[in-house]
Design brief:
alpha+beta, 2 domains, 9 helices
Length: about 260
């Protein structure tokens, strides 16, 4: 059995590293490692904390989400529905195993296969057909960042729906097209600022801006890929939900 001092030292090192990379990502919009490498650090921390729950602290990265500016501004919102992810799946074999498990549990399940864009996940909440809240994935379980004002200036985001359901929450992917990315970096260079490394980093930083005017001028894009939950109407399949969204004028993923 490992010495408790060794375990505490490992936890301290992991938390320090994750806080550093959180600051680079959330506050500086300049990630120093890939998402995969970040996920590995977080998975390692979660594994150690699961084994030694008595060593979990309130300020551990597993208990927090978002950048310091957003925490102090009170811009964190609780999820009504978890925004789960395949972030812990790193091989097609794991996907196949998951599908096989579903096939054993369900009677002749049908699957929808969709294209994917590597952007930033965002949930949109509508009450009586009106957009009331936009939230990033955050930790995926408990809370995300409130980006409502920024979402309102994204052209692809519907502000009102034709059918006024009491509650309708959908999830989509915010991304930046290449032409918009090139325009942003051209402006960065003109102003003598550091250019963004790639469109995903730029989109992530843009969506979390505290000034929605910056978000608007960078021309983000969005497509919806999931119905989170609804009240006032029941949906039995994923494609049925897509058909309803299209009727509302919602931009769903184009090829599925």
């Amino acid at each position: 059995m490992q010495d408790i001092r060794t375990i505490k030292k490992k936890l301290a090192e992991l938390r320090k590293a994750i806080r550093y990379h959180n600051n680079r990502y959330y506050n500086e919009d300049d990630p120093a490692i890939t998402d995969y490498e970040y996920d590995q650090l977080m998975l390692c921390l979660k594994a150690v904390e699961k084994k030694y729950p008595e060593l979990i602290t309130k300020n551990s990265p597993t208990q927090m989400v978002g950048g310091e500016a957003r925490r102090t501004a009170g811009l964190l919102v609780r999820h009504d529905v978890p925004m789960l992810s395949l972030q812990d799946v790193f091989s097609k074999e794991e996907i196949f195993a998951f599908v096989e498990e579903l096939q054993q549990e369900l009677d002749h399940p049908e699957f929808v296969v969709e294209e994917k864009i590597d952007g930033l996940s965002m949930a949109l909440r509508y009450e009586d057909g009106v957009l009331v809240r936009a939230i990033t994935r955050g930790d995926g379980i408990v809370q995300g960042e409130d980006v409502t004002e920024n979402a309102r200036v994204i052209h692809d985001v519907k502000k009102t729906l034709k059918d006024k359901l009491p509650y309708f929450e959908i999830r989509g992917e915010v991304y930046m097209e290449k032409k918009a990315f090139d325009a942003v970096n051209a402006r960065q260079e003109l102003l003598g600022l550091k250019p963004f490394a790639n469109p995903r980093n730029c989109a992530a930083g843009t969506l979390r801006q505290l000034d929605s005017r910056i978000t608007k001028e960078r021309h983000l894009s969005l497509f919806i890929f999931n119905l989170q939950t609804a009240r006032g109407r029941q949906f039995t399949t994923h494609t049925e939900a897509y058909a309803f969204m299209k009727k509302q004028g919602i931009k769903v993923i184009h090829n599925y």
